[in-house]
Amino acid sequence: MRILGKTASRPNYLFSLLPQYFKEKDNYVPNAVPNHTTEGLLERYLGIFCEEVDAEVTPYIDNIGLLYDATGLSGLPHSDPTKFLDHIAEIMGNPPNIGSEAQYAKLLRYIKLIFQTKGTLQGIIYFLAIYGYTVKTSTEATIASMKYDATPTLIAFDDGAKYDLGFIFFSGYDLVITDLPGNTPTNPGATWMDTQLKPALQKFILPIFATINTITYSI
């Protein structure tokens, strides 16, 4: 793709930006030079820079979209395209890396969808799918609390109801995970689930103050 160079419909881009005065005065045209019979000295001079940009810079511009698709980084014209994983991760909020490089690239590609469902069971399901698992069963854990009821004098609303008496709030999940349909059964191990998966879910997916109480694997 040419961006600055000469095309059939216009001179090189830099020369086309100049006021008409410069174009009228750029009349030093060496007729003996092949393919330059209608270009003046200034136009040919600016064309050098246009050709350099088209040859050395444009390939990166053509592939700029890959900088936001971590799974396609191998298509970048760079000796070490995976170095841009850190760049993409920073843009996307530095989600946790608890798997392989390929899995992390896939996570970064779909992290927006995961964040859109953050705080829900669906968000957990999307996150687990990156690593080849899904939720087999889940139990929502709750805690009953009377923390804000004053004693011995109870706080009451106008209708006489005691403030926050017996309040129950969602505290987290008890999860059983299994392999995605079609995958070979692979137990991720209690260590990975407890020390990596559970903290990642709690930090990036679950609602504030909620937690993964237990997480186990089943075929």
Strand content: 15-25%
Q: Please give the radius of gyration in angstroms.
A: 31 Å
Q: Helical content, roughly?
A: 25-40%
Query: Based on CA inertia axes, which overall geometry fits?
Result: elongated
Average pLDDT number: 79
The major pleated sheet works out as: 3 strands, mixed
Secondary structure tally: strands: 3
Strand order of the largest sheet: 1-2-3
Tell me the count of domains: 2
| H/I helix tally | 8
Through-space gap between termini: 51 Å
Account of the 3D structure:
The protein is of the alpha+beta class and 219 residues long. The chain folds into two domains: 13-62, no CATH class; 95-217, no CATH class. Helix content is 36%, strand content 15%. It is built from eight helices and three strands. The chain has helices spanning 13-16, 20-25, 41-56, 58-62, 84-91, 101-116, 121-129, 190-204; strands at 133-145, 167-179, 211-217. It has a three-stranded mixed β-sheet. Helix 6 runs antiparallel to helix 7 (121-129). The radius of gyration is 31 Å and the shape is elongated. The protein starts with 12 loop residues before the first helix and ends with a strand. The mean pLDDT is 79.
